[in-house]
Design brief:
Layout lengths: L2 H6 L17 E9 L2 E8 L2 E6 L10 H4 L4 E4 L3 E9 L9 E12 L5 E9 L3 H16 L7 E6 L8 H15 L3 E6 L5 H8 L7 E6 L1 H18 L17 E5 L5 H7 L4 H9 L3 E10 L4 E5 L1 E5 H10 L6 H14 L4 E9 L17 E13 L23 E7 L3 H10 L12 E13 L11 H8 L3 E5 L2 E5 L3 E13 L17
Parallel strand pairs: 8-9, 8-10, 10-11
Antiparallel strand pairs: 1-2, 2-3, 3-4, 5-6, 6-7, 12-13, 12-21, 14-16, 14-19, 15-16, 15-18, 16-17, 17-18, 18-21, 19-20
Helix pairs in contact: 4-8, 5-6, 9-10
Length: 513
Amino acid sequence: EAPEERRRRVAPLAAAAPPAEAGEKPLLKGIFEISKRSCDVVLSARRLRWSPILPESPTGDSSMVSQAQEEIIEMKDVFSVKLKRRRFVGQKKGGTLLGITVFKCLSKEENKLTDCAIHLNNLSEDHCHLWFRHLKEILNGFQNRPKSLKVFVNPSSHKREATHVYYEQVAPLFKLADIKTDVTVTEYEGHALSVLKECELQAFDGVVCVGGDGSVSEVAHGLLLKAQIDAGKDTDYIRSPVRAPVPLGVIPAGTSNILAHTLYGIKHAVTATLHIVMGHIQPVDVCTFSTPSKLLRFGFSAMFGFGARTLALAERHRWMPSNQRKDFAFIKTLADLKPEECELSFLPLQIPQEDSHENDSKDQWQKIQGHFLNVSIMAIPCLCSMAPRGLAPNTRLNNGSMALIVVQNTSRTEFIKHLKRYASIKNQFNFPFVETYTVQEVKVQPQGKSGIDDKENTSLNAASAEGNYPWNIDGDLMEEASEVHVRVHPQLINLYGVNTDDLESSQATCSCI
């Protein structure tokens, strides 16, 4: 069956399960050896159950019966089933059939997922093939699980570990789950975007990116841009973009892994892979960043001011090791702390009313003008090690709004206190110079010249001399001279993952500057 035909029948949020009314009806009963004990095994559409076969006690002692604890596997947690064979060295096909191996996704502490194998041993070919067919039919009923994926690997991410992460940790699980992959190892910035523009997405059930936030941002932008091209949209001005046709999977392998941490509650490649394999899908809001004349890109979050200037300085010191240049840029920008003068116009979140009119929103726009140390615009919470609760803890993945966080000009000491609050449980916004808004749209119009002056890095001056202002969009540097208009578009893309509201308190393991 073609991927696009499967997608027409896919439920929007979670892997579809067999009908509940038929779920407990036994499909098969049989005997297998499990953990060196003979067991009665029962398969239904929803569960695989087994219990040890115990000899009858001649004295009628019931204590032995109590030891026969039934064990259960939910079929929704199973992602692969294989015939188990004994083969000689070098033998690739055939071999003596030993039974069936069932592979299950197992939840562990700290939001981690791992895989485990249960071996059902039986030497009967007919018996094993019958069970194997039924197990495969059940697994094929989970419609959101991908069968074919387009994969992008950024070999330059972080410590050049993405290729190793993919081939050592991710690819084996895809192979085990019988997922076909088409892999592109990117060779330059913009490579993934170029490939996606020409890609026939209907051939795949999803797209996967192995890399850091910058890589993921490029792939997400390319995936959504391709959707607009295919829909015949004018890509210079997109008021109402169409949704991405396939989900996006994120395998963390970069310096910053904010999106992965927000989706999974942890930076862990195996966990991310298993969410993809299991077809856990989460709709996510996306922003468009535009000038008056063109679309800049699709993205999830942005910073203007301190967060952007820090990134700009780090990017101009690419010759330094990753952590060193980020620390250097952070300290240098903090030492030369200066505000940006700009005008912010924003449209607060509107709750639809039955008698409301579309044009009424024109009267709802608000403006603030002044000198700002930092402006954050975020459609997702942005969890990371520096902010376990999130850089924007009051927003959600798909609530149709953005958090606008404005830090007014203040002393360096007070600004540092504000930054330190992100790492604690205290409210980082409880300062007189910090204002927060829940918005649908934002326009940022820089006033006068950039806050970067001659005392700062000379290469930074060259950019500012042209009147360009740096923007940090999902960890990617963009420089723009004119007004930037940011709009949120509800649930524009499906990402493989879960809503972190449903996860346990996450232990942050990634870095975010």
